[in-house]
Amino acid sequence: MELNAMDYFGDELNEPVSPTGQCLDNTSLCLYILAFLEFQVPIHNLPIVSLVEDAFLSIPHFTSIMVDDERGVKRWKRVEVKLEEHITEPKFTDNGIPVDSYDKHFADYISKMAMENLPQTKPLWQVHVIKYATSNAAGTLVFKFHHAIGDGYNLMGVILSSLQRADHPSLPLSFPSLKSSKPKNISRFILEKMPQFLSMPFTFVSDFGWTLLKSTLVEDDKTPIKSGVEAVEFRPFKLSNVTFSMDHIKEIKSNLGVTINDAITGIIFYGIRLYMQNIDYKSRALNSTALVIANTRHIKDYQRVQDMLKTTKGSWGNHITYYHVSVPKLQDIPISNPVQFINKAHTSIKRQKNSFAPPLITKLLRMKNKLEGPEALAKHIHGTMRKSSLLISNVAGPIEQMAWANHPIGGFFFTLSGIPQSLVITVMSYMGMLRVTTATEEGFIDEQKLMRYLNSAFEIIRHESIAKENTP
């Protein structure tokens, strides 16, 4: 339902919705972020109304709706928030059934809830209070945020600003450092960068051209992870998780001389290819591409919500971009050499990060929005997603255990809905563990088998990295 500013005659309209925000809320593309807090104790006594009020109602985007002004420009309009309309407590069935039955009720509820559009007449967020115990938690809070409100950095920051350390509530949460721990040797740095600098024009033209082709003309093959059906974003999906030790990931990183992001991406790619080969042997040689979401901020750590909101040019909003990374083929890399999946991921990601292509693509998208409008940009981004095989997004979580109102939180993860792909993978660290979450098209991808292959890929690559390190 489109709302007009005249529906709120006499009330002042606030700042315009950002171009990206408008793009993420229209008929072609409507994206949501779902964040999950898994509690270790029952949450029957959790004062959810007061907690949500304290966490959200001081933030303008959580007390506003999008309306059109007299020129048709979407703007944020402050409205009265009725918390009872944003907090939902589902009723599954009577108590006394096995936990695995609640797991199914939970999965079905999340799939249905994730696909429902939020009403435009209310601020675009919900909190779902699931008091039933599942195999992962004694109780779960699920936050549903419209992506137009902000990106993962903003929305995770809002949640994290409301939580406390379980061991010392007065101390701030800490996060994994994203900065390099090794000081750079200037001479060595110049020597290492010289070949890259000399090849930069060719690399730029190659990467830029490939990205344009992947966004417009070239579509990935249909494979066991890409059904290619129309409107796949409206089909039911299954959420699954596999968890790895951060210490083991760091061990792989150190042994192979790559980054943590390279290590986990290589593991995911290897596990995916093993799954694809098991389902259809021919798919080992078919083209598959991951669309990797990246944060364009120069900020290294989370900010307090108050700091995010200080200026309109601050860190609030959708400061994200994307780049394509090819999933290596098993015909190119022998199955007996899985470490090459890490090396390939390292080379591809490093090349994209050092290329001018992603920033230029971002500028072109802004120009397209300015000349053709949010609907045209949304169609372009939708097509870019649909032509690739999967999406990968990652967020760094706290090192320490969190609690909300003295209720300890054992698990913390997120996913995305509205993505026109059969497979969406999100990665989040928390309490020394790395959680990989998959949202898979129901009835097309065997999510349990995929989880087994991801776990197997991790074990194989870890073993191979240790052997490589110990080889004289």
UniProtKB/TrEMBL annotation:
Annotated Pfam families: WS_DGAT_C, WS_DGAT_cat
Pathway annotation: Lipid metabolism; Glycerolipid metabolism; triacylglycerol biosynthesis
InterPro entries for this protein: O-acyltransferase_WSD1-like, O-acyltransferase_WSD1_C, O-acyltransferase_WSD1_N
Cell compartments where the protein resides: Cell membrane; Endoplasmic reticulum membrane
Superkingdom to which the source organism belongs: Eukaryota
Gene Ontology BP terms: triglyceride biosynthetic process
Keywords, in A-Z order: Acyltransferase, Endoplasmic reticulum, Transferase
Start and end residues of each O-acyltransferase WSD1 C-terminal domain: 316-461
Catalytic reaction annotation: a long chain fatty alcohol + a fatty acyl-CoA = a long-chain alcohol wax ester + CoA; an acyl-CoA + a 1,2-diacyl-sn-glycerol = a triacyl-sn-glycerol + CoA
Membrane topology, as annotated: Single-pass membrane protein
Domain O-acyltransferase WSD1-like N-terminal: 103-263
GO molecular function terms noted in the UniProt entry: diacylglycerol O-acyltransferase activity; long-chain-alcohol O-fatty-acyltransferase activity
GO CC list: endoplasmic reticulum membrane; plasma membrane
Main location, first listed in the record: membrane
Family: In the N-terminal section; belongs to the long-chain O-acyltransferase family.
Protein name in the entry: O-acyltransferase WSD1-like protein
Source organism (scientific name): Trifolium pratense (Red clover)
Classification of source organism: Eukaryota, Viridiplantae, Streptophyta, Embryophyta, Tracheophyta
